[in-house]
Amino acid sequence: MALADFDIVLFGGGGDLAMRKLLPALFARDRDGHLPPGARIICAGRHHWSREEFLNVLETNARPHVAAAETQPQRWQAFCERVQYVALDATDPAAYEPLIQAMRPDSELVRVFYMATPPALFSRICHNLADVGLANERSRVVLEKPLGRDLASARQINAEVGKVFNESQIYRIDHYLGKETVQNLLALRFGNVLFEPLWRREFISDVQITIAEELGVGNRIEYYDTAGALRDMLQNHLLQLLCIVAMEPPLSVQADPVRDEKLKVLRSLKRFNQTTLAQNIVRGQYRAGHVGGIAVPGYRQEGAPPDSRTETFVAVKAEIDTWRWAGVPFYLRTGKRMADQLAEIVVRFKALPHSIFAQPSSTFQPNCLVISLQPEEGLQLNLMAKTPGDRMRLKPVELELDFREQFKMPRMEAYERLLLDVLRGQLTLFMRSDELEAAWEWVEPILNYWEQEQTEPLPYSAGTWGPAAASALIGRDGLQWREEALPEM
């Protein structure tokens, strides 16, 4: 599908997200011939850079994140010709004249405004765009997370942005939905008959969704200490992955059928009460430790206030009150300075009810489907199989599908796919306003409980899998996190 000609404006165009993700993603799509010849990229920011200074910024901060730039310097130079920089104070409508002059007046042109800024600026920028005549019915606006700090602020953002753009023009981005493996999870569930009869409470024991990072907060401490792991990761990434796992088959892969089914999941999540708030949630904060054999400081030594109660780890037991999922626990977990860098979904099936072999059923590992999102993307199915020899002895084996090995073709990064979808006007992989608010409705009681209790997050050493209470959370149900359940080699 050929793209219509467009101007894309990156507010925050000199910032970290634009340099590490957005501009490299646009370059990759330009390199592969997806961008029309006339397409232009306008980076808007507060720095008063000349054209030459901005090109130096691109060379220093964006080009290192472009894998092919070194071997194809002419393509990088051609891409840079598309990019220009405009200095403006996005909060002041009187400062928009340079942007007006930079954009083409063609009324048939697609205009995309990407908000790579703090969410507090979203509504103001949108209203300013309307006031200076840059927003029209062909415009699209992309809102980067975090989309609010709580339900009230999320509703306010939706309402204010909605005064300028209608819902079909608003793209609330969650880059995890752009990952190839998440697309393959949809294909696995709804493109094959094999798993559908088993994808329910009668056969599934539990579902685990983990996003673990080895890195600490780095230079994001100013943002992170006001957000924490719950707002930064669980309210968006983890809940969106849960929705893809748990949703009913949509009528099609068009935007509203898919988002309707995700919304049903969010509205079916069992609400917390005082007992489950205390029992089913673990929050932690990393202390000094070792990651990959290297000593690293604790969170409070990386610039956070010495009395900070911000969580860098959270684990939650969630339940879905539907016919399909009643009684199946969903364990969500995310943290920084963990033992490994990974993102995965683990669907564990129920244990063998009876062994006909000369070994007890307790020695049989339950079948398990592992969907790996990072660092590698693939699928793994754990089965029991007979070992070679004249004895009927079974042991666990793994069937693995490595997407990079199976499909010998270049792969799109998440932001590449999502930016293409924005330019094509495809909303399937973006959150709708009611989805966003339903997620906040479920998460907000946790935030309120933490605020009321004023308790300290549990400490855990950097380079581990979080507080011991996270193991106890799942252990109370007679289960283990996947890394704890793996057999010793």
Which band does the percent of strand residues land in? 15-25%
What's the CATH H-level homologous superfamily of the largest domain? Dihydrodipicolinate Reductase, domain 2
Low-confidence stretches: none
Strand order of the largest sheet: 16-15-14-13-7-12-11-8-17
Shape descriptor: globular
Give the helix tally.
15
- Which value, in Å, is the CA radius of gyration? 24 Å
Kindly state the percentage of residues in helix. Answer: 25-40%
- Just give the CATH class of the largest domain: Alpha Beta
N→C terminal distance: 49 Å
Mean model confidence by pLDDT: 91
CATH architecture annotation name of the largest domain: 2-Layer Sandwich
Query: Could you give the count of β-strands?
Result: 17
Overall domain count: 2
Oligomer state equals single chain
Report the structural category.
Answer: alpha/beta
For this structure, the CATH topology of the largest domain is Dihydrodipicolinate Reductase, domain 2
**Main sheet summary:** 9 strands, mixed
Pfam family, one: G6PD_N
Catalytic activity: D-glucose 6-phosphate + NADP(+) = 6-phospho-D-glucono-1,5-lactone + NADPH + H(+)
Function: Catalyzes the oxidation of glucose 6-phosphate to 6-phosphogluconolactone.
Active site: 237
Structural topology:
Elements: E1 6-11, H1 16-31, E2 40-45, H2 51-62, H3 73-82, E3 83-87, H4 97-102, E4 110-115, H5 122-131, E5 139-143, H6 151-162, E6 170-172, H7 180-190, E7 204-212, H8 221-246, H9 255-268, H10 274-279, E8 281-287, E9 289-291, E10 294-296, E11 313-318, E12 330-335, E13 342-349, E14 368-374, E15 378-386, E16 394-402, H11 403-406, H12 414-424, H13 433-453, E17 458-461, H14 468-475, H15 482-485
Parallel strand pairs: 1-2, 1-4, 2-3, 4-5, 5-6, 7-12, 8-17
Antiparallel strand pairs: 7-13, 8-11, 9-10, 11-12, 13-14, 14-15, 15-16
Helix pairs in contact: 1-12, 6-13, 8-9, 8-13, 9-13
Keywords: Carbohydrate metabolism, Glucose metabolism, NADP, Oxidoreductase
Function: Catalyzes the oxidation of glucose 6-phosphate to 6-phosphogluconolactone.
Enzyme class: oxidoreductase
